[in-house]
Design a protein that fits this description.
Layout lengths: L1 H7 L1 E2 L9 H4 L7 E2 L4 E2 L15 E5 L5 E3 L1 H5 L4 E8 L4 E12 H5 L10 E6 L3 E6 L9 E6 L2 E2 L9 E3 L12 E7 L40 E2 L1
Parallel strand pairs: 2-7, 4-13
Antiparallel strand pairs: 3-14, 4-5, 6-7, 7-10, 8-9, 8-13, 10-11, 10-12
């Protein structure tokens, strides 16, 4: 874990692609555009039996809820197309997702008014934190399909978050829990030197200027 975090803190900036004005504004600084979908995660890819899988919603809610995949897929289904950006310096445009909007899931919950933050819990032993308001835009999904097909195991099957306005480590794969919180708390990568907010257009990669990204680490990800 620490070796991977150290490598990610030092990779050089890739050469910027030459894009037309209609596309250049969509590419955050320090990113390079890719047609593939690279893979990066901590730990082994988990295996699931959907008959035993569930999503737990807890914390600052009036009542804890447990959702099966069937219950989630019975909620209003949304299709989105969005650009995504990884801290390892790749970006991918026009990614197509299907799932339930976080805002629509919220309508099924009785969240306490003092809840201002969310911790996403995912396998294996992964957490990432976000302000609640960051999850309420129309393109933030709990997604089960990508590009018209079910997610592959390496991309988070059976359920992942898609939070396209932030670096993609905030879009937790293998989602298992949503915790509403009064106060912010750092997640896995945030606790190992990554930025707490993670806005790609502000290059909020790391929590300190002393961190940089290991030479060529942006190429490190396995392509799918």
């Amino acid at each position: 874990m620490s070796d991977k975090a150290d490598r990610l803190k030092k990779a050089r900036v890739p050469q910027q692609p030459q894009l037309g004005n209609e596309l250049q504004h969509r590419l955050p600084p320090g990113q390079t555009l890719t047609d593939s979908f690279p893979i990066l995660h901590y730990g082994e890819v988990p295996e699931y039996d959907l008959s035993n899988w569930n999503l737990r919603v807890f914390g600052e809610v009036e009542e804890e809820r447990i959702f099966t995949m069937e219950q989630l897929q019975a909620l209003p289904v949304t299709h989105t197309v969005s650009d995504i950006h990884c801290v390892t310096r790749w970006s991918k445009f026009d990614t197509a997702w299907e799932g339930v909007r976080f805002a629509d899931l919220m309508e099924q919950l009785n969240v306490k008014p003092e809840a201002r933050y969310v911790m996403l819990h995912a396998d294996p032993d992964y957490e990432t934190n976000l302000p609640l308001e960051a999850l309420l835009t129309d393109d933030v999904l709990l997604a089960w399909n990508y590009d018209g097909k079910p997610l592959t195991a390496k991309h988070g099957w059976p359920l992942r978050m898609v939070v396209p306005q932030l670096y993609f480590w905030k879009s937790a794969k293998w989602l298992r829990g949503i915790e509403f919180m009064k106060e912010d708390r750092r997640g896995f990568w945030e606790d190992h030197g990554f930025h707490n907010i993670a806005d790609p257009f502000q290059e909020q990669r790391f929590s300190s200027d002393e961190y940089e990204m290991p030479e060529d680490e942006w190429k490190y990800c396995e392509a799918d």
